[in-house]
Amino acid sequence: MNTLIQENNILLFVEHKIYIHYINNILHIELLEEVLTEKDTNTIHETLDTFYDNCKKNNIFFYILYDFTNLSITSSSFLIYNSPIYNKHFNKHETFFISNIKSICIIIKNYVLRESLNQIIDLYKPENMPHIIENITDADKYFL
Q1: What string of DSSP letters covers 93-143?
Q2: How far is CA 18 from CA 24, 44, 70, 89, 131, in A?
Q3: Among 134, 140, 74, 141, which residue's Cα sits nearest to residue 107?
Q4: Considering its fold, how many domains does the chain have in total?
Q5: In what order do the strands lie in the sheet containing 62-67?
Q6: Could you give the C-alpha distances from 47 to 21, 29, 50, 134, in angstroms and in order?
Q7: Is 44 helix (H, G, I), strand (E, B) or coil?
Q8: How many Cβ atoms sit within 10 Å of the Cβ of residue 95?
Q9: 3-state secondary structure of 16
């Protein structure tokens, strides 16, 4: 098995900023800082591109857990401002997401942000609908 997709594997760790790891068929993407630089974002996307390519080659199905616990209303404006960068990345892997991702959960503690994202998702209606949750224990019902 490719080392990039082995269990308990740290894919990317940038102290106080980003922690991406893969364990028990769940890809955890945790933002530890409210605002990331463009370089940070590109590093995340390069890491995920490599991970997705390896999963595609090895026909691996998995779950994704985005942990935006540290996201605040002020930092969310940065994400919105950079949404074209994220949108391009998601569009690049759209077919792969439909075929290989079992479920997506996004942890957001802030109620206003959680409800706002739910409204956006309701309008967008992605093929693989993410579940917006308040804490990690809520993911159990979506990650079987």
Answers
A1: THHHHHHHEEEEEEE---HHHHHHHHHHHHHH--SS--EEESSGGGGGGT-
A2: 20, 8, 11, 17, 21
A3: 134
A4: 1
A5: 9-14, 18-23, 26-31, 62-67, 101-107, 131-133
A6: 10, 11, 5, 26
A7: helix
A8: 11
A9: coil
Residue whose token pair is 């995340």: 44
How do residues 46-67 score in pLDDT, each as one tens digit? 999 999 999 999 999 999 999 9
Domain coverage including residue 70: 3-141
The domain that holds 60 is classified in CATH as 3.30.750
The amino acid occupying position 84 is P
The 10s digit of each residue's pLDDT in 82-98 is 777 877 888 899 899 99
Look at the block and give the residue holding tokens 């993407």: 29
pTM, to two decimals? 0.85
